[in-house]
């Protein structure tokens, strides 16, 4: 195979394979939030979450540097470094959001969707990935559309950690 043809094929193979075969576990799952944990490098998991969001055809609106904010304000607030790193990604889906808002225009409050990735100072090497579940409220159409959002966000998280 010519080198010019080989490089793209090799690159495609590399990106088709997961960067890590990290096992994950459910730490908490209830109506309010879902928390997963995995033993991995923070940046690797964060990048995989970004990739999984983009693989769904979605655009990340914002990255929040939560741990940096806490570190920056540590002198003004009581407490020490809670996180080694902690960031959030917010994104929305025109399709999923439209479905929820057509079912109930007040469902606008649930957009954007947010996934957080964090590593606790007292648990280095354990990376947590979590999100708030949107409440499945309203009539049947609203509840179904909101549950679809929860399934989307969970799929993104699981995809990233596989």
Note down, in words, how this protein is organized.
This protein is of the alpha+beta class and 162 residues long. Helix content is 41%, strand content 27%. A six-stranded antiparallel sheet has the order 1-2-6-5-4-3. Strand 5 and strand 6 form a beta hairpin. Helix 2 (42-55) packs across helix 5 and helix 4 (94-103) runs antiparallel to helix 5 (140-161). It is globular and about 45 Å long. The model is unreliable at 1-21 (pLDDT under 50).
Concise overview:
This protein has 162 residues and is of the alpha+beta class.
Q: Would you list the SSEs in sequence order as H and E?
A: HEEHEHEHEEH
From the N-terminal CA to the C-terminal CA, the straight-line distance is 32 Å
Envelope shape: globular
Report the sheet with the most strands, covering strand number, pairing sense and barrel closure.
6 strands, antiparallel
Q: What is the C-alpha radius of gyration, as a whole number of Å?
A: 18 Å
Low-pLDDT regions: 1-21
Strand content: 25-35%
Strand order, sheet with most strands:
1-2-6-5-4-3
Whole-number average pLDDT?
87
Considering DSSP H and I runs of 4 or more, what fraction of the residues is helical?
A: 40-55%
Count the strands? 6
Number of helices: 5
Structural class from helices and strands? alpha+beta
Features:
162 residues, 41% helix, single chain, 6 strands, alpha+beta, six-stranded antiparallel beta sheet, disordered N terminus
List the helices and strands and how they pair.
Layout: H1 3-16, E1 24-29, E2 33-39, H2 42-55, E3 59-64, H3 66-72, E4 83-92, H4 94-103, E5 113-120, E6 126-132, H5 140-161
Antiparallel strand pairs: 1-2, 2-6, 3-4, 4-5, 5-6
